Amino acid sequence: MGGRASGPPPLPGAAGRVWRTLGAAFVVLVFVPPLLLLVSGSLTEPGLPPSPTPHLVPDPVSTAGYRQALEIGGLLRASLNSVLVAVVAVPLSVLVAALAGFALARLAPRTTATVVAASLVALMVPATALLVPRFAIFRALGLTDTLVPLIAPALLGTSPLYVLVYYLAFRALPRDLYDACLVEDLSPMRIWWRVALPLVRPVTAALTALTFVLTWSNFLDPLIYVYDRDLFTLPLALRSLSVLDPTNFPVFLAGAVLATAPALLVFVLAQRRFLHHDDPTGRDRP
């Protein structure tokens, strides 16, 4: 009776899609213009004076900066060293953090509270406060001037933050799921690998991307532990390239593009997981 006709209820995921679209637009507006200027500057002819105004399309377009960056700056060898460190350290760090987070989620509540409190205290310790004792340990073991100190932190999950993130993810899984696994007489390792870990794939994708970016861009640790130029990672090689000829900016920008491209590729590969919900059947749904 004179009631107002109501339209169809909004779709449950509509608001989430709008916010994701707005977030993606914000990221594009903030990060894409600097990247375009970076690529444009890398395609400028080396040796020419810098233009007073930036141009998206340089005139003339030249790839000589990339050739000089690879040949003079030693970026090819440094890239291989960085790839080696990332290929070993990133999966190892994620697996250790996932295993520790799962164990933490299955401990008794009082023990869990103690370990979480200790992890939070560890996160408050500045990383620079650990540089001297870590260097002393690696030097006593004869591991300085090798890539081992760059990989070794992965044996501890790299950071307590990663363990806590996995702990919260595993804790959010239904308790009935764990009880059903126990009824099926599954071992803790099989529960972790076959049941729990596949259900937190968005967390794994996000932490994998984060760990790769931090490992790939790590400058301080190679600066402290690596002295042989043949063992330089990409950040160290870029630093050497920047001081080699500070006025030849197209060569340095070309090196910066080569260093940035892998991190962007990893983000593109991982974004599907942490921009979409993941259901237990293994199908993604927006």
- The total number of structural domains is 1
Ends apart, CA distance between termini: 39 Å
Name of the top-level CATH class: Mainly Alpha
Order of helices and strands: HHHHHHHHHHHHHEE
Task: Identify the strand order in the major beta sheet.
Answer: 1-2
The computed structural class is: mainly alpha
Write the CATH fold name. MetI-like fold
Major pleated sheet: 2 strands, antiparallel
Protein name: Carbohydrate ABC transporter permease
Transmembrane segments: 21-43, 83-104, 116-138, 150-170, 191-216, 249-270
Pfam families: BPD_transp_1
Membrane topology: Multi-pass membrane protein
Which key terms come to mind for this protein?
286 residues, mainly alpha, MetI-like fold, 67% helix, disordered N terminus
Q: Please, could you describe this protein's structure?
A:
Helix content is 67%, strand content 1%. With 286 residues, it is mostly helical. The chain has one domain: MetI-like fold. The protein has a two-stranded antiparallel sheet. A hairpin with a 5-residue loop joins strand 1 and strand 2 (284-285). Helix 3 runs antiparallel to helix 10 (201-216) and helix 3 (75-106) runs antiparallel to helix 12 (234-244).
